[in-house]
Amino acid sequence: MSHLTRISYCLFLIAISSFSYGQMAEYNYRRELKGIKDQWHRIILPNGLFGKTSQNLTDFRIFGLTESNDTIEAPYLLRQTSEKISIKDVAFKTLNASHNDKGYYFTFEIPTVESINQIKIDFKQDNFDWLIRLEGSQNQNEWFTVIENYRILSIKNTHTDFQFTKLTFPSSKYRFIRVFIDSQEKPELSVASITQNDTIDGTFRKYGVKKINAKENKQTKQTEIDVELELPVRVSVINIGVSDTFDYYRPVTIKHLTDSFKTEQGWKYNYSFLTSGTLNSLEKNEFQFNSTTVHKLKIFIENRDNQPLTIDTIQARGYIYQLVTRFTSKATYYLTYGNKILERPHYDIERFTGNIPKKISALELGEELTIEKEEIEMTTPLFKNRTWLWTIMTVIIVLLGWFSVKMISKNKMGGNNV
After folding, report:
1. Are 221 and 303 in contact (CB under 8 A)?
2. Model's pTM, two decimal places?
3. 70: Cβ–Cβ under 8 A, 6 or more apart, which residues?
4. Model confidence over 359-378: pLDDT tens digits?
5. 325 is a domain residue
6. pLDDT tens-digit map of 289-334
7. Is residue 329 domain-resident?
8. Number of domains in the chain
9. Radius of gyration over every alpha carbon of the chain, rounded to an integer in angstroms
């Protein structure tokens, strides 16, 4: 029994060694982290590595090699410099609705001393095109203009369902707010909301566009725009610049290239949906979506029977990503990545974010190095393949059990002969 125990113990050590080594061998790239002086640091991720990581950024690991050649792992949090938006509903009363030969008035009272900067008004009508003037007053005797000639629009038919009825203006404090609509048709107000929206702007990177190719598809009555960025990067905002000065509204869909493969007929490309909306002359044509690693885009603009729009610029922007990490042991640390099947790691620091210092210094990233798999095989343990390793361990355990049962049987037989 003691001999079998020693065999099992050796196999256990081999398994542990294999798992430990596999930590870095599972990745394709590494960069040394330079300038570690404190317990907490941040690592700003450069654009060039996003094309080599998984789409959901789950394969980052920070490994350290100690002087005794042990491998340790440092925990991290992945953060992005996105904007922070707070929306506060402001209570109000609808006082009256009136009209004269100039148009229609809707008056609201705000009983509190709160500032507002946005009013959303919805009407029962489906199709309208009106100009708005927004006024404020403290006593309903003297009125001050907040915004004027502000256009609101609603179009609903078999092809389009578009509505723009949100009034955005500089923060204002008035006891009374009056909306004047320049219309001969009576607007049937269904609902209104008044809010104070505060936004702390995020930090963006602007990405270079390598190539733009626009063509008109007469069969589908679409403008198709192929956009290629200089390299794969994390994109969260696409701006489409239109140089035409006439009014327009066109449904738009944005997709990105996910994979390609070669067939006998040539290359085939698969595109996945990013976002959709309406390209229009009333507001900034900025389309936001969840941050995605993007290299090539395809934009579809529905023209129907209208003349195609003149697209003069396509701009791509994205948030800055960084890892906030904690170092507790002395070692040479590396940022490793390049394994697109790994799941997101879970660390204790996720539950104690309040203990992370507000100001932490950024580390310098060393040159990107490829983790050579050929060199790894020369120094790997005897049983590199985990499937074979577990198979052998299972066989050993079964043999141990068999030997144990056999010895117990012998002991019982010997006892019976006494």
Report:
1. yes
2. 0.75
3. 20
4. 999 999 999 999 886 544 44
5. no
6. 999 999 999 999 999 999 999 999 999 999 999 999 999 999 999 9
7. no
8. 4
9. 32
